[in-house]
From TrEMBL:
Species of origin: Gracilimonas mengyeensis
Organismal lineage: Bacteria, Pseudomonadati, Balneolota, Balneolia, Balneolales
DUF58 domain span: 207-373
Regions crossing the membrane: 16-36, 42-59
UniProt entry keywords in alphabetical sequence: Membrane, Transmembrane, Transmembrane helix
Domain annotation EfeO-type cupredoxin-like: ranges: 67-141
Protein name stated in the entry: Uncharacterized conserved protein, DUF58 family, contains vWF domain
Amino acid sequence: MNPITIFKQLHLSNRFFQVLAGIVLVFVIGYFVPVVGPIGEIIFYGFIVFFGVDALILYSRKNPLSGQRVTPQRLSNGDENPIRLQINSSLNFTVKVEIIDEVPHQFQLRDFSISTSLPPNQEQEFRYELRPTQRGEYDFGDINVFLQTALGFVRRSVTIPASETVPVYPSFIQMRKFEMYVISNRLTDAGIKKIRRLGHTMEFDQIKEYVRGDDVRSINWKATARANELMVNQYQDERSQNIINIIDTGRVMKMPFDGLHLLDYAINTSLVISNIALLKDDKAGLITFSNENAGVVKPQKRRTHIRRIQERLYNLQTNFLESDFERMLIALRKHVNQRSLVLLYTNFETFSAMERQLPYLQQIANRHLLVTIFFENTEMTRLIEKKPETLGEIYTQTIAEKFSFEKRQIVRALNQRGIQTILTPPKELSVNAINKYLELKSRGLI
């Protein structure tokens, strides 16, 4: 092996310096107590021998390790994504290893490592999870492994080439989770409310086995008697309705909560809503806007359409400028002619901010069923619930209550003008938006 390569891979361990410090201490004592001097020499020469043996064992093979990193083709934003490291040892003895994976800089993991032992001539798999909070491309580096024997005087570094770039997309894990709930009719398990239907005004579809969540009033007793198990009538909802997600990408959506911006919560939820709409044979569309031209994905009901929506959401970013609601209104009128359910994701912090956009909201509500979605400030809520102890805390709590009251005023003002609203904490956005969509659909309002 090349001496330069050996030198680069060679690292002295903490044990090496600890033993060396002990030997120095023995020699210092031997200076004052001559009897101890020869003992120090014996220990020193023994240390040199063990050091050499340790190094020879570690460098007995040119390529002691091989391996790879197994990552998904894309990562899901805001979710825990599994990463696997497969390390194969070709050594004939057990070694202690410290594995340092070069994770993307976006995670800011300065001390990430896995310490374990590798048995001889075996492959082991190690798992960990990463939670990205930004969309875009993430660059993984190499896998660095530090080996040492039981003696532990020397560490050898081995670099396994594993550089790769993995894109982070809007939360498709959350989308798939709700998709499975829809397919298995278990939305109530995810916190989705069971919507009571006043009679059946829809077309009969089929008779099927009863599953939890079905309306017990739909039980077909004749079919139940024949099959000797509960059977229910299934009715078909009105289909091919337009579901339009409109996302404000202005400065108001830059506010962070739990590592994600409000924009990311809106993106993840709009992807979930679009997927559920397509599963229910509705048409899903998307409009994004800020102070510039609006981006539009026209509503369609093909299942492959979700990919177009996902690609549109992938590179969506906020800016620090005021959004132009007039541009959004023009884009909606131009590209959507049929009456639709419009879910508008924005954030009104003050009543005056809502009043400036109210004329545009009313124009949308005249032609479509508009649901305006904005966010509770959870930090304000915590301040209000906390018991104040000083004059400054009382003042801060009073201001927080004022802003909270304004949020409730906004809801009341919009509802008085026939505009549906959702005021929600960011983490509960998906569940609350799905509940509203299913509620409006079951009531036949769209």
